[in-house]
Amino acid sequence: CRVRQYTFNVVLKNTNRLCASKPIVTVNGRFPGPTLYVREDDTVLVRVVNHVKYNVSIHWHGIRQLRTGWSDGPAYITQCPIQTGQSYLYNFTVTGQRGTLLWHAHVLWLRATVHGAIVILPKRGVPYPFPKPHKEVVVILGEWWKSDVEAVINQALSSGLAPNVSDAHTINGHPGPVSNCPSQGGFSLQVEAGKTYLLRIINAALNEELFFKIAGHQLSVVEVDAVYTKPFKIDTLVIAPGQTTNALITADQSSGKYLMAASPFMDSPIAVDNLTATATLHYSGTLASSPTSLTSPPPPNATAVANKFVNSLRSLNSKKYPAKVPLTVDHSLFITVGLGINPCATCVAGNGSRAVASMNNVTFVMPTTAILQAHYFNISGVYTTDFPANPPVAFNYTGSPANLQTTNGTKVYRVPYNSTVQVVLQDTGIIATENHPVHLHGFNFFAVGKGLGNYNPKTDPQNFNLIDPVERNTIGVPSGGWTAIRFLADNPGVWFMHCHLEVHTTWGLKMAFLVDNGKGPNQSIIPPPSDLPKC
Ligand code: C2O
Fold first, then answer.
1. Residue 159 and residue 348: Cα distance in Å, rounded?
2. Of the candidates 438, 486, 495, 439, which has an alpha carbon nearest to the alpha carbon of residue 466?
3. 510 CA to middle of ligand 1, Å?
4. pLDDT for 207-225, tens place per residue?
5. Mean pLDDT of all residues in the chain?
6. Is 212 in contact with 224 (CB distance < 8 Å)?
7. Top-level CATH class of 1-126?
8. How far is ligand 1, taken at its centre, from the CA of residue 78, in Å?
9. pTM for this model (two decimals)
10. Residue 241 CA: which ligand 1 atom is closest?
């Protein structure tokens, strides 16, 4: 293993999309940002230098960060953000992971344009558990706003209303030709007939779960969230913000051009957004002028298409890559996730109310000092440890909505080192029918069960898959249903858990786990680096 060094200069860059140019916040002037290439067991050093007027922090989404919470990145959770003109060295080791992840800004809405791929190759000499592809290609799905993204969310917060939806979806930074800008090109993937390619697909969109498909070609899924899966073939993937999927595609046609499409799944009825991003798969030797074989994206409410994909996911669970599912549970939490409305005296457009979101009716309030620092240095008054293991009123999906109004707090849930945790995430579905892709920092978890309606603690666990459930870091809590996850709390520190739809995070759909140090060697948080930013 070796040390990989990168420098991320956070700079403004004029960028042209949808036939208009605007300055956006980027890493090294690129959108999407540079790919981090590492191997399992490598140490990664990334110096992030902030040259913009916003505070910045970068999260290495899905990297375990064993004992290195100082490098995890969520602003005010594990670090204070890097202020204008300052820099910070992220320093972590990639342990026991291989596949595709993403890095992204983790402060304000900067993630919209500040994101990129993390490619983790297996250790040298260790093959993939699937046929070696001819080439590997990163495919990043995203969103584009014509106006300044920070202005979009600030306006929403002051009015109390939902923010404007994006003006386009993107594939590797490009929407492809659209009606109000037909001349713009899109991403083109060049292939040779008969060869197999590994697509490393990432959803870096802020607020949109997306379908992804390619005309005339099947996708063979081999990995999600940097964990190998049992391979399966499918036409259409569904991928939530923060999730990654590796899929093999064989160029089994002889020639031609084929459309690639990314389109929204389960749009909120409040903010309808049907835009499809397109790109092309282009066989070498095919004339540029030849027609493109089209594909029709699934409609936004194509739940059956999404379920087909989600229900096919299983851990590889081979001898070499066993699924280490916790079989017993030390801490059992039942957490409602949903949207609500709180009073707001200044929200004129919102008629005196504002949209909020919560977990167990707690709307998380960002502290002004990082919680990990407060924990490590014993600073009091920053957070409390009373995050409730259950909602204040027993949730009943068919009953009257009990959790429209929420209380504010910076509450964490404390667990001892190496305890096992089960969390059942129950969608309340009261205001909007949307999946909530919930992301846990610092751990992978096993998605042991899911269902529709109310979770039943007596009967539902009997159907849990404790053999080969998919292992990942971000899971869609189904609209009007629940999902159950289990993880081993083997990573001391403070670990954020939140909805990866940025608008819901902003509204407060977030909490954190505090995992205490253990007693043995290598069971404690490492000391903070000397350049750790100050608040
Ligand atoms: Cu990818 Cu806390 O986020």
1. 6
2. 486
3. 11
4. 999 999 999 999 999 999 9
5. 95
6. no
7. mainly beta
8. 12
9. 0.97
10. 1
The structural domains of the chain, with segments of one domain joined by +, span 1-126, 130-315, 331-515
Give the CATH number of domain 130-315: 2.60.40.420
**18-27, 69-78, 187-196, 294-303: lowest mean pLDDT where?**
294-303
Mean pLDDT of the region 485-496 = 98
DSSP string across 132-197: PPSEEEEEEEEEE-SS-HHHHHHHHHHH-SPPPPPSEEEETTB--SBTTBTT----EEEE-TT-EE
115-121 and 36-39 as β-strands: parallel, antiparallel, unpaired? parallel
Partner residues linked to 38 by β-bridges: 120
Q: Are 240 and 500 in contact (CB under 8 A)?
A: yes
CATH top class, domain 331-515: mainly beta
Q: Which atom of ligand 1 is nearest to the CA of 74?
A: 2
Ligand 1 site, residue 59, Cβ cutoff 6 A: yes
For the beta carbon of residue 18, count every other beta carbon within 10 angstroms: 16
Atom 3, ligand 1: residue with shortest CA distance: 61
Cα(first)–Cα(last) distance of the chain, in Å? Answer: 35
174 lines ligand 1 (CB under 6 A): no
Ligand 1 touching residue 61 (CB < 6 A): yes
Give the mean model confidence (pLDDT) for residues 365-387: 98
Cβ–ligand 1 contact at 510 (below 6 Å) = no
| Separation between Cα atoms, residue 465 and residue 63, nearest integer Å | 25
Nearest-atom index, ligand 1, CA of 242: 1
Q: ipTM of the predicted structure?
A: 0.99
Q: Is 498 in the pocket of ligand 1 (CB under 6 A)?
A: yes
Confidence label for 395 from pLDDT (cuts 50, 70 and 90) = confident
pLDDT surpassing 70 at residue 269: no
Mean pLDDT of 235-241: 97
d(CA 156, CA 177): 29
Q: What token pair was written down for 230? A: 């049992």
Ranking 153-167, 262-276, 432-446 by mean pLDDT, the lowest is 262-276
d(CA 88, ligand 1 centre) in Å: 19
Atom of ligand 1 nearest to the CA of 62: 1
Q: What is the dihedral of CA 306, 472, 248, 322, to 10 degrees?
A: -130
pLDDT at 400 over 80: no
Q: Is 496 in the pocket of ligand 1 (CB under 6 A)?
A: yes
Ligand 1 centroid to residue 439 C-alpha, Å: 6
CB of 242 within 6 A of ligand 1: the answer is yes
Tell me if domain 130-315 and domain 331-515 are identical in fold: yes
- Give the Å distance between the CA of 101 and the centre of ligand 1: 11
Does residue 504 have its Cβ closer than 6 Å to ligand 1?
no
pLDDT of residue 432: 65
Amino acid 272: pLDDT:
62
**Position 31 pLDDT exceeds 70:** yes
Whether the CB of 115 sits within 6 Å of ligand 1: no
Ligand 1 centroid to Cα of residue 52, in Å, is 21
Name the nearest CA neighbour of 110 among 72, 148, 137.
Answer: 148
